[in-house]
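Sample A.
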Amino acid sequence: MPKSILIDCDAGIDDAQALFLALSSPEVNVVAITVVHGNVLTKQVAVNVLRILRVVERLDIPVYVGSETSILGHERRHDDEPYHGWDGLGDSPDPEAVDESLINPEPASAAIVRICREYRDSLTLVCLGPLTNVATAIRLDPALGQRIQHCVIMGGNYYGKSNQTIFYKACSCWKTGTYI
């Protein structure tokens, strides 16, 4: 029986590869994808995810848009030279625009909470980007970590810098049920 996963990502090239692998695996059932501000702005991340889903003919998977800024309110500047290109996917051409009406209006953090409740004890949360959506979901439901089976985090970045304070606070409340 396939493992049910919810993927939270910022859909750069690395996340695109991970999505393609997950979506092609018979061992995995991707139940939803939530997107977060990171490599590019969230609207572009959502478009990137829809582009990926279109390629693998899986537009049935719901996509939810999340945080536009970090949990501390810091906005990443996107006028610097972007590591994954201006569109987050290496500036690869896309002659056919995706249908943005496929983006679910429910906020990503609320969707994470709802889906973790629906799949109680049988869902793996896969975090490929900044943990802002997850931290916000934990604020909404401090017991969130008690409802998931596994949590997988792809950590690190190009510059080797991270916001360890938020990361450690987010991880410490998974089983304790405390607020960030």
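Sample B.
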Amino acid sequence: MNSVFMFDALREATNEEMQKDSSVFVLGEDVGHYGGSYKVTKDLHSKYGDLRVLDTPIAENSFMGMAIGAAITGLRPIVEGMNMSFLLLAFNQISNNAGMLRYTSGGNFQIPLVIRGPGGVGRQLGAEHSQRLEAYFQAIPGLKIVACSTPYNAKGLLKSAIRDNNPVIFFEHVLLYNLKDQIPSYEYFLPLDKAEIVRHGSDVTILTYSRMRHHVMQAVQELVNYGYNPEVIDLISLKPLDIKSIAQSLMKTHKLIIVEECMKTGGIAAEIIAQINDSYFDFLDAPVIRLSSQDIPTPYNGKLEEATVIYPKQIIEAVKSIV
């Protein structure tokens, strides 16, 4: 086992796949000589050169279109968004091309494309750099969406995403890059469509993902002292949702809290609640509690920013109210 930061785990995954497969390449702003804004591509340029670690102009729609064209011809591009918010400038390419072309070509084209980078509410990065885009992309047919939360799952998921023949949007959280954890020294892969049961319990199911996994686990440490026994599931796959794992947990606990950093309106939690109402409503003994961010642009002011997102105290109160 090696103890590594999340940015190093992502870098290891990229390096291993580039080493094994010459069709894998990285492109984006400052990914080459600079090594990426969060050092995920550090030193890869000196190892693989200009054509495999490609610094692009500040032109997201252009280099996304180029990456999709490269994927159609058989290459495996990894696009780094310096901040995921900037990829809204490439939304047309992602939805009308990456998501659709395998379908509209009658299966003649595959799009083995990974779109990855930092998102989420950081520490006073301002509204335009604090966006949570998972709900924006959730509605696009043809995409897979993954949110990593630990160095271990970051590496295993990214390796699987690079080898997948479909476009994968790979969300990293800006505040988790310096998270340190043990990861195996051997090669491993994690499935892109499975949730992870982080903690087994019997009182209530808490669903979460990305940075909120760590807020939930902080809350759980305190809840256990009060005698509560929550089950915690890290969704990991945001599209498709692993609804079967959620349902199996609900059969046991009959109560559900969803903790997300996404906005409440049209968020990931909203979709989960809709699917549960469609198929698993009878398992519920209480209304689902949804803890989501405020429906406002994230304030720059530190105190106001803190007030827009969910913290352990709110999770503790929610568990006490539902159990």
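B remarks: The chain has two domains: 2-183, 196-322. The mean pLDDT is 96.
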